[in-house]
Write a structure and sequence with these properties.
By secondary structure, the protein is of the alpha/beta class. It folds into three domains: about 140 residues, FAD/NAD(P)-binding domain; about 100 residues, Fumarate Reductase Iron-sulfur Protein, Chain B, domain 2 (Orthogonal Bundle); about 150 residues, FAD/NAD(P)-binding domain, CATH 3.50.50. The protein has 17 helices and 17 strands.
Length: about 450
């Protein structure tokens, strides 16, 4: 947040007890009986559409059948074989737009099999035993550098280690996990799960993490047999309007990071009137968490209509159920205040011939805290061919430089989802392995 005095942004708006209740697990885990009942609803379809809808191609009917037969550990292995971060994905995946939307039960009855919660039940069951489900292959003698300890980097590193390669992960942040550690709403990943998942993943062996360390591609390319880039998008777009530098105006990514790393939520300052600019998951997460911290009025302002929001309808409804107001077809034109934000000015928009333009009609709403959530940009000077502001890749993550692969949010193509990043990291690892061993 900017350093100017911001009288409306204060801490301790709610008691510690209220905050603990507000930031409880969004979806309570299933117990054994509940999991058995939920699994019994699956039709175990042949050529199941839910598999096709899963970016990591998990055999969903198989793992649900394994749960129904009382073998959740086997179900977890089925999941982890395709998605080693299946535990986190079970918590944060937009299943309502992916596997559950494609579920035959959803199409027939409007109520899908609870695939996400069943996946969490299975993965949590196995991870609680503190035993890794896979063993490393014989050492290959090859060394791979992974830049970025987020979902793509961790997925790539694990698959490479599984195949016998030695992997070193470099990350500029003090903790591994990337988006899972720093960027996901706290009520979606409770009890320090992101860190516990990293430690569990690392137990396969063959992976070392150099946290808090920045390296160049040239340096690691010379020292390692291959390089994978999973650096994410570090920059945050500015509003580009008058008042963008006032106190109380900051980016939503930093707000969520501060919240995720806080050991005492009561110390986090939040405004009385919060406005979030954007229409993606970051905007929704920032808005909901502002409300949970005690903000009185929280508004998400998005320049297009509801149907164009990248945040799912489920997440939109979650925000609304928490008292967040969703304001569509408006764009910011100025933030007003004497040193600190007090109001934001918005102009109504419409689309003409496919182009978004302002109508000239404006409104002002109270805002002592404004969060920017209008997209992130690549900050790494990679010296690689770019496409749409991201690293251009072909096939399974091959960049324009020999020996360098990329995946996750920093790479072109795909959705900016944890599960997609996991799939891209896994597939790049297989391509790296084939290249290093000649097994093409």
């Amino acid at each position: 947040m900017n350093s100017q005095f911001t009288p409306g942004v204060v801490s301790e708006r709610l008691s510690a007890e209220d905050l603990l209740d507000n930031f409880n697990d969004l979806h309570a885990p299933l117990d054994h009986h509940e999991a058995a009942v939920a699994a019994d609803r699956c039709y175990f379809c042949h050529d199941a559409p839910c598999i096709t809808a899963c970016p990591t191609d998990i055999d969903i009917p198989l793992f649900i059948r394994q749960i129904s037969t009382g073998t959740p550990e086997a179900a977890a292995r089925t999941i982890f074989n395709q998605n080693i971060l299946g535990g986190m994905c079970a918590r944060v995946c937009p299943t309502e737009d992916l596997c559950e939307q494609a579920c035959v039960r959803e199409l027939a009855e409007g109520k899908p099999v609870e695939i996400g919660r069943l996946q969490r039940f299975a993965t949590d069951t196995l991870m609680a035993k503190d035993v890794h489900p896979f063993s490393r292959a014989a050492p290959t003698g090859k060394r791979v550098a992974v830049l970025g300890a987020g979902p793509a980097g961790l997925s790539c590193a694990h698959r490479l280690a599984l195949l016998g390669h030695d992997v070193t992960i470099y990350d500029a942040r003090p903790k591994a996990g990337g988006l899972n550690e720093y960027g996901i709403a706290a009520y979606k990943s409770t009890d320090d799960f992101a860190a516990r998942e990293v430690n569990w993943l690392m137990s396969i062996g063959g992976i070392s993490i150099e946290a808090g360390k920045t390296v160049t591609i040239d340096a690691v390319a010379d020292a390692f047999d291959a390089v994978f880039l999973g650096v994410g998008l570090g920059g945050v777009n500015a509003l580009g309007i008058a008042g963008d530098d006032l106190g109380g105006v900051s980016d939503a990514v930093s707000f969520i990071e501060d919240l995720r790393q806080s050991t005492d939520l009561a110390t986090l300052p939040v405004g009385r009137n919060v406005v979030v600019i954007g229409g993606g998951m970051t905007a929704i997460d920032a808005a909901v968490q502002s409300k949970l911290l005690g903000a009185e009025q929280v508004t998400v302002a998005y320049r297009r209509g509801r149907e164009a929001m990248s945040a799912s309808r489920y997440e939109q409804d979650l925000a609304a159920s928490n008292g967040v107001k969703l304001l569509f077809n408006v764009m910011p034109t100025a933030v007003h205040g004497n040193g600190a934000a007090t109001e934001i000015e918005l102009e109504y928009t419409h689309v003409t011939n496919g182009k978004l333009t302002g109508t000239g009609e404006k409104i002002r709403i109270a805002a002592d805290q404004v969060f920017r959530a209008i997209g992130q940009t690549l900050t790494m000077n990679a010296g690689l061919t770019l496409s749409g502001g991201k690293i251009a890749v072909t096939g399974a993550g091959r960049t324009s430089r020999d020996g360098v692969w990329a995946g996750g949010d920093c790479a072109s193509g795909g959705d900016d989802l944890t599960v997609t990043a996991v799939a891209e990291g896994r597939d790049a690892a297989m391509d790296i392995h084939a290249t290093l061993t000649g097994d093409v």
